[in-house]
Design goal:
mainly alpha, about 55 residues, rod-shaped
Length: about 55
């Protein structure tokens, strides 16, 4: 039981880090997709889009 109490903070730290990383990645993906949509929409509205839609 003594060994578990030593590892508990480490386990909690790893879990917290995993949750934070997952959250950051999810937000980065959303922001990236949003940025791509905004850029494409801006190019489309100005007529500078290279590919014809």
């Amino acid at each position: 039981m003594d060994g578990l109490m030593e590892f508990l903070p480490l386990i909690l730290l790893v879990l917290a880090a995993f949750l934070v990383v997952r959250f950051v990645v999810k937000m980065a993906l959303r922001l990236g997709i949003l940025a791509i949509i905004i850029v494409v929409a801006a190019l489309y509205s100005t007529g500078n889009l290279p590919l014809s839609l």
